[in-house]
Amino acid sequence: MTRRISIFGATGSIGTSTIDLIARDPGAFDVVALTGGGNVALLAEQAKALNADIAVTAHESHLADLRAALAGTGIEAAAGTIAIEEAARRPADWVMSAIVGAAGLAPGLAALETGATLALANKESLVTAGPLVLATAKQHGARLLPVDSEHSAVFQALTGEDIAAVERVIITASGGAFRDWPLERLANATLAEASCHPNWDMGQRITIDSASMFNKALELIETREFFGVDPDKIEVLVHPQSLVHALVGFHDGALMAHVGPADMRHAIGYALNWPARRALPVERLDLARIGQLEFRAPDEARYPALALARAVMDEGGLSGAVFNAAKEEALDAFIEGRIGFMAMAGVVEAVLDRMSGDRSLIHAAITLDNVRAADQMSRLAAREIITTGL
Ligand SMILES: NC(=O)C1=CN([C@@H]2O[C@H](COP(=O)(O)OP(=O)(O)OC[C@H]3O[C@@H](n4cnc5c(N)ncnc54)[C@H](OP(=O)(O)O)[C@@H]3O)[C@@H](O)[C@H]2O)C=CC1
Ligand SMILES: CC(=O)[C@@H](O)[C@H](O)COP(=O)(O)O
Ligand SMILES: [Mn+2]
After folding, report:
1. Which parts of the chain fold into alpha helices (H)?
2. Does the pTM of the predicted model rise above 0.95?
């Protein structure tokens, strides 16, 4: 029987890896919707190759190009954030959430409301609105499956286990592009240098977040929300090889580690085939050849993002939405050359400080409207702080 599939963020790193997997199994899937942003040529090519029902670009200004590229195919073309949400409401069995940033939240919620299984790469959904995402899944009988490599690893290590027996969850961090740089050099790190990941081939934004450890900061919150583990039971361990993705420690002292190649097609394929395990086109690790795996504690001075994430988990409420929005604005400013690499954490901290004064906003009910309001106010605060200086 064919499965109906939609991919949000089809033109990105996770999206193209997902398509790589489904294209290997022609006839097994009916593709409902594919969405992208500025890369309309690739989106149209994917839609034609997979005979999708509809292709949607986030940008209205690209609609004419998308329509032209799909002319005569019978594939619908649409544009804009509302059109993406509408596409997410089309019935599908399995939906990949791989838009980058807070823009991924609303389509993911819309997909969950249909009862679809949501494969969640978009970690920002859980950071900004974890309780809302989980409640929406529960209310509509939808399943949420992790795709982020560490969370897929934890999920796999927990299969068949009692969550009450978990003593700690350890997520690993490569240390990013600058893990071996002297601290004093980091202030002058360039965009090109920050955009090279030592192990993973990913989109530019998450690659820079890996270098600053904001990616791991988001993942701490993602772990807390996905698995309901107390923050003081979640640890980060620097592991330069990125082969052990996470470990789960149990009350009896056992540590279950998930080991695999640095290839997201494993985690995507696991979510695609779950609860079955099927053959996947990923490297089989030769541990004898690899020889050594290294681990070390993260240096908190080098990575202030980690302490900020712990403060966010302590605060709760909408502080995750504030944190993520401030981080996205700081990252934009770094990419555009308006602030230095090390200034990003200062911007996020200043926004958190400023917004924490507004208790009614931070502790408002976690609804999509309130998340959007906190997101918008935090972006404005971040822009002002970036413009006027810290
Ligand atoms: N890459 C990886 O290995 C991993 C990624 N993740 C997470 O998965 C998500 C996707 O990451 P990744 O694939 O690397 O990102 P990419 O930047 O490679 O791709 C992002 C996708 O989102 C689209 N997009 C960008 N902005 C918007 C917007 N405002 N509205 C709608 N669509 C938009 C892009 O379109 P276009 O390119 O056409 O402009 C593209 O399809 C992120 O949340 C990331 O943290 C998690 C673990 C690993
Ligand atoms: C592949 C994946 O899941 C990324 O989130 C990865 O974890 C990034 O690497 P870092 O460990 O450097 O953040
Ligand atoms: Mn990850």
Report:
1. 13-23, 40-50, 63-70, 81-88, 105-113, 124-139, 149-158, 191-194, 204-212, 214-227, 265-273, 287-290, 304-315, 319-335, 343-356, 359-362, 368-388
2. yes
